[in-house]
Amino acid sequence: MKNAPWWISEVIYQIYPKSFYDSDGDGIGDLAGITQKLDYLKELGITMIWLSPCFQSPMVDNGYDVSDYRKIAPEFGSMEDMDRLIQEAGNRGIMIMLDLVVNHSSDEHEWFRKALTDPFYHDFYIFKESDHIPNNWRSVFGGTVWEKVPGKEEYYYHTFHRKQPDLNWENPSLRKEVISIVRWWLDKGVAGFRVDAITFLKKEDYAIRPEPDGVDGRASLTGFGYDVDGIGAFLEELKKEGFDYKPCLTVAEAYGVKEEHFKDYIGDQGYFDLMFDFEAADLDYEGDWLHPTNWTIREWNDKLMNYQMKIQPYGWCGTFIENHDQTRAASKYLGDHARNPEAVKTLGAMYFFLRGIPFIYQGQELGMVNFSRERIGQFDDLSSHDMWQRGLEQGLPKETVMKLINRRSRDQGRTPFPWNGEKYGGFTEGKPWLELTREYPDINAASQAEDPESILSFYKELIAFRQHGKWSDCFKYGNITPLKSHEKVIAYLREYGDKRLYCWFSFADESLEIELPEECSDDSWHTGRDLYIKEDRLTLLPRQSVILCQHLP
Ligand code: NOJ
Q1: What backbone phi and psi angles, to 5 degrees, belong to 70?
Q2: Which residues of the chain are in CATH 2.60.40.1180 domains?
Q3: Contact 17, 51 (CB under 8 A)
């Protein structure tokens, strides 16, 4: 494709450093551990690693609370380990993307410490003088967004935890600091940034909201705490002065961006290269985890397709089914079929061939599943603890709240990576910081590596097919159009030049008859042993994926 961006051929693998591989036996994954496992990633076929934060941090939110953007968290290693990782990954043709967490810092960052006494740094954060909580806004992790400064009639603002004070993007000196951090890492050789919580940078007037939406009398931040008009000027500057400094790929965690702003966020002139959508990922609850939904395949399909169609005119998105804030996709989307390899493969293929740059979250390629915990003490994730509190405050029975948290906890995706079936899955020689899933003796990398039918082998095939197969350019550059199909089938057409790919992914328990749109029999790709096509009819087997490829004359 003419003028295609260089990153169109990337397949990105997300690593949550704390849970990937522990090289020194302290029970916590580290950078040297990642370096030791690069050959596994190379063999999988990915081309870039998105590293969740590995900077110095008190780890209240596992690194999403940075206390020094230019230092590595000691539990993850040293700057030499980071340099080595960048170098060794590069030797294998793999680039490193960092997680840029600059909506907030840790309250243990030097800037915040100084802010309490020094007027220059005071303006790096959002303080309000007041003898009472300034408004009724609810933080994303529960409770008020305001924390009192000890010994003063003053509060500071935090979108997330009280130990994650928001940075004041209205202040040009703060913005300059962030830009210099971006350039510093680009000079070190990183290839991009996933930019955390980016829509929260600008806030509205801090007025009290007349319509609270919870029993706590507070209002969630929708409409005034994120995607607020005027944010564009900050993002534009970050791009021009920061990201444009060297070629790099930027991905926005752009929660809640309104459709009319898509054109500003991505595309040739956009603030970012890619953005993530959360509509489909969060289809299983409404508002918060205490309110689960009875979603259907049709709704899932519609959410996916709506977003694909809306974004297509402007640029590309990052496609994903898992990340460190989500539960395991097999458990979420497949329910009783979470352990059914055919279903897991179809789930993988369905999202992998959407229009966008595919992201794979560690362990997804093994078909990892959720792990049901019994006590709140087994959870590390702070939003799980918050939800537990909120559930009990709302008078829900303990068992119900526990069930709802298990269904949604962010710890589901954070269990240590099972490298083999031995003690602690070969993740550590020590005691892992978080329990492994019960399934690790069955679901682990070693047992799947040699099995050509395994989910891991299938992910290798998926990647190779997209990257180097005969239809690769159609997957990478092709447009997408939804295809009408059965209630339990997700179907779409990818088109590029004279090539067409008709894609069907069944999540049904029964075989389905699909009427073929026209002759499309040049080539095919499918899961399951057999492909049944008779004249103009395809029999799609339960949980089967079928792609029919056509090269127009
Ligand atoms: C989004 C990150 O993905 C999540 O893990 C984190 O807790 C919040 N932003 C705050 O940084």
Answers
A1: -110, 15
A2: 478-551
A3: yes
Of 65, 69, 160, best ligand 1 pocket probe by most atoms within 8 Å of the beta carbon: 160
Separation of CA 507 and ligand 1 centre (Å): 31
Q: Using CA atoms, how far apart are residues 169 and 270, in angstroms rounded to an integer?
A: 19
Q: How far is the CA of 186 from the centre of ligand 1 (A)?
A: 22
Residues of the chain with CATH 3.90.400.10: 110-157
Q: CATH 3.20.20.80 region(s) of the chain?
A: 6-104+172-372+413-463
Q: Whose CA is closest to 369, among 332, 420, 324, 320? A: 332
* CB-CB contact of 17 with 218 (8 Å): no
Contact assessment for residue 59 and residue 17, using Cβ atoms and an 8 Å cutoff:
no
Q: Which residue's CA is the nearest one to ligand 1's atom 9?
A: 197
Strands 523-526 and 512-515: unpaired
The answer to whether 102 and 51 have CB atoms below 8 angstroms apart is no
303-325 per-position pLDDT tens digit:
999 999 999 999 999 999 999 99
Angle, alpha carbons 27-40-51 (nearest 5°): 60
- CATH number attached to the domain at 478-551: 2.60.40.1180
Q: How many CB atoms lie within 10 A of CB 246?
A: 14
The CATH superfamily of 6-104+172-372+413-463 is Glycosidases (3.20.20.80)
Asked if residue 223 lies in contact with residue 192, where contact means CB atoms within 8 angstroms, the answer is no
Whole-number percent of the chain with pLDDT over 90: 94
To test the ligand 1 pocket, which listed residue (50, 61, 98, 411) has its Cβ within 8 A of the most ligand atoms?
Answer: 61
For 414-430, the pLDDT digits (tens) are 999 999 999 999 999 99
pTM exceeding 0.90: yes
How far is residue 358's CA from residue 352's CA, in Å, rounded to a whole number? Answer: 6
Architecture of domain 110-157: Alpha-Beta Complex (3.90)
Compute, in angstroms, the gap from residue 103 CA to the centroid of ligand 1: 10
Mean pLDDT score, 14-41: 98
Residue with tokens 């994120």: 226
